[in-house]
Description:
Blueprint: H1 3-20, E1 28-32, E2 46-49, H2 58-62, H3 81-86
Antiparallel strand pairs: 1-2
InterPro entries: Kinase-like_dom_sf
Protein name: Genomic scaffold, ProqFM164S02
Organism: Penicillium roqueforti (strain FM164)
Amino acid sequence: MFPEEKVRNEVAIMRYILDQTSIPVPFVLHWGTRKDGPLDPELGPFIIMEYMDHHTNMYDVLNTPGRSRAYRRILDPDFDEDELERL
């Protein structure tokens, strides 16, 4: 509903996590509002960040085993609650 506020909050949270924890987050190179867009001002708010190499993602970890990505994601009902809290 408020995309520019959402982007501003995401950048602030990423910077906070980077500064205050050891959790790896991509470095934000630049961000801006719709009117700040580097190409077409109609593209909307944006974040340009470094790429982080990864081997898996939360979707694959939390998804019900055997359920394809093509279908709506469903949290694995047998997922360990302590592991979920850690993630």
